[in-house]
Amino acid sequence: MHTLKLSLFILFFALSTLTGTSALAAKGKDPTANWKPKFDPSGAQYTYLLSCVGHPAIEGVGVGYRIRDKVWEKSDGRLFVDFRPLSQLGGEKDVIRKLQMGAVHGMMSSSVAAANVSDTLGIVNLPYVVDTFEKLDHFRGTPKLWQPFQDAALEQNIVVTDVTGYGSYGWATNSPVKNIEEAKSINFRIAQAPVNIDFYKAWGLKFTVMPWPDVPQALQTGVITGLDHTPIVCNISGKFNVAKNYTQLDYAQGLYIHLTNTRWLNKLPQDLRQILLDTIKEESSVARSLTQKQQAEQIEAAKASGVSFYSLSLEDRAQLIEKAKPMYEKWGEKIGAEYFKEVRDELAKQ
Fold first, then answer.
1. What sign results for the dihedral spanned by CA atoms 83, 89, 93, 99?
2. Are residues 262 and 246 in the same domain?
3. Other C-beta atoms within 10 Å of 262: how many?
4. Which of 307, 237, 306 has the alpha carbon at shortest distance from 12?
5. Does residue 19 surpass a pLDDT of 50?
6. pLDDT above 80 for 4
7. 313 and 178 together in one domain
8. How far is CA 299 from CA 184, 228, 247, 251, 306, in A?
């Protein structure tokens, strides 16, 4: 049943991406209908308003609903996690401002957007640092690496409560890219994130900074000829309908970084605060495991539908790392040189 439900919503989301969520809303359709709570939240004493731009068919997003249901059960209906995916509360930059003010209590921010909250959070976007599922697990499970990341935005009244994912980053392109020379002919869409801009400049590749909602039309019309993203997102959102090639760079893990407003959190009764934090941790761990499985499934599904997959040679990979050295130095200073070195040295052992 879970597989059938997921397949149906993958199909639905691909269609909604092409036709526009607003058009569906105008026809009275609710893309989150199958995720409605099986309980009446109106009697809750406290509400945790949680935002995410992603679609719940992605395991790293759907965890928001699992957190909602578990917290409701554990709190005996005292705390309701009002999870709003699919940009219901606005785009990420807008929601970050709302989170800082306390108008939104929590946000599962994409890792590329989170660097706008704190430079330290940009460490997970740097190429070939936290680049595998295994390194991500080690990063999350090692206190000396995780604690500075968790506390990076405390001055803004924001704490990192955990992370989930949406897979390994690479290139979805209209024409095959098997090496760096072929990549130079592509105009890549990249996220509105300072880290990504810096390393694409360092790599010497053409790129266009573009909001995610603009990507489908830009890809179809040739304004862009490729995009920097993960197989999970490209397949579920229908980007592979146009970009029929994928180069597996695996240079970073796409993450949803769970940010919580500390002023709101500290006003919760101690028992409810512990229930919320424990549940976020438990369910986020499960979601990270499911993400690795989902990536393998989505790659196979994409191949079955005619998408060709390629990998760069070790020499090309080494070239990308070498070209990125200047921005490693720049971002090392922003993140904190000692912490940056400690993360790189520790994860290099994995």
1. negative
2. no
3. 15
4. 237
5. no
6. no
7. yes
8. 24, 16, 12, 17, 11
Query: How does pLDDT run across 116-150, given as a tens digit for each residue?
Result: 999 999 999 999 999 999 999 999 999 999 999 99
Q: Is the pLDDT of residue 3 over 70?
A: no
Query: Per residue in 193-247, pLDDT tens?
Result: 889 999 999 999 999 999 888 999 999 999 999 999 999 999 999 999 999 999 9
Helix 325-335 and helix 194-203, axial crossing angle in degrees, nearest 10: 160
Q: Is residue 300 part of a domain?
A: no
Q: How far apart are the first and last CA of the chain?
A: 37
Q: Are residues 49 and 177 in the same domain?
A: no
CATH classification of the domain holding 277: 3.40.190.170
- Please give the Cα distance from 22 to 282 (Å, whole number): 34
Q: Given the DSSP bridges, would you call strands 253-261 and 308-310 parallel, antiparallel or unpaired?
A: unpaired
- C-alpha 182/C-alpha 199 separation (Å) is 18
Three-class SS state of 1: coil
CB under 8 Å to 177, separation ≥6 — which residues? 171, 183, 186, 226, 245, 247, 310
Query: Which residue has 């393998």 as its token pair?
Result: 296
Is 107 among the domain residues? yes
* Number of folded domains that form the chain: 2
How many Cβ atoms from other residues are within 10 Å of residue 220's Cβ?
Answer: 14
Structural domain boundaries, residue 83 = 2-165+255-295
Nearest to 244 by CA among 255, 257, 231, 253: 231
* Confidence at 28, pLDDT banded by 50, 70, 90: low
Listed as own residue / partner, the contacts of 153-156 with beta carbons closer than 8 Å and 24 or more positions apart are: 153/117, 153/118, 153/120, 153/121, 153/259, 154/262, 156/100, 156/117, 156/118
What's the whole-number average pLDDT of the chain? 92
If asked whether residues 244 and 158 sit together in one domain, one would say no
Same domain, 28 and 53: yes
Statement to judge: residues 7 and 128 lie in one domain: yes
